[in-house]
Amino acid sequence: MIDPALHAVLRGGLALLFAGAAAHKLRDLHAFRVALGDYQLVPWVLTGLAAPGLAAAEAAAAALLLSPAARPWGFVGAAALLALYGAAIALNLLRGRRDIDCGCFGPALHVGLGGGLLARNAGLLLVAGAGFLPVAARPLGALDGATIAGALAFAAFAHAAATRLLASPPGAA
Question: What is the SS3 assignment for 112?
């Protein structure tokens, strides 16, 4: 059983993550289509449908996580997307293809495939899984609101810092 404030942080963090990811992809669908094509998991002709489909799925997961009636489906969508992306990354790493852009952070930030991305996705998958834990019944107060806002700000900062580390080539100062 988890505290409702922690559950709110999990929901909010994943919703922010997927809303931001969808925005990056929708801002430049062509660049995301190219990144998706580089994975060589679907024929090029289908990337024209898959790219906006994945962005829409991310936006839907974010919206469902924020909707009180649909939260469980939001966690299901988030977990499914994270598992799909993790499998795609792992398959390409097994193929020896590390130099392709993950397509995770938009065209302005190239992040090659690697163990760091797999670890990130595994951690986020655990976060999505924690969303299915039973939530203690207690009302949220003003202090909870401040705690949730602070935790989300910290999580956003930590994610941005981890993203910059993943984007830095080894040995770069």
Answer: strand
pLDDT above 70 (res 170): no
How many Å apart are CA 120 and CA 117, to the nearest integer? 5
Per-residue pLDDT for 5 more than 90? yes
In angstroms and rounded to an integer, the radius of gyration of the C-alpha atoms of the chain is: 17
Q: Report residue 113 as tokens.
A: 């495939």
For residue 11, count other CB atoms closer than 10 A to its CB.
25
Mean pLDDT for all residues in the chain: 92
pLDDT tens across 41-63, in order?
Answer: 999 999 999 999 999 999 999 99
Query: Sorting pLDDT into bands at 50, 70 and 90, what band is 171?
Result: low
CA–CA dist 132, 67 (Å, integer): 15
List alpha helices for the chain, DSSP H: 4-27, 29-38, 44-66, 71-94, 115-130, 142-167
Conformational region of residue 171, where left means phi above 0, alpha means psi within -120 to 50, and beta covers everything else: left
Q: Among 58, 47, 49, which Cα is nearest to 25's?
A: 58
Q: What is the pTM of this model?
A: 0.89
Residue 7 CB neighbours (<10 A):
19
10 Å Cβ neighbour count for 170?
A: 5
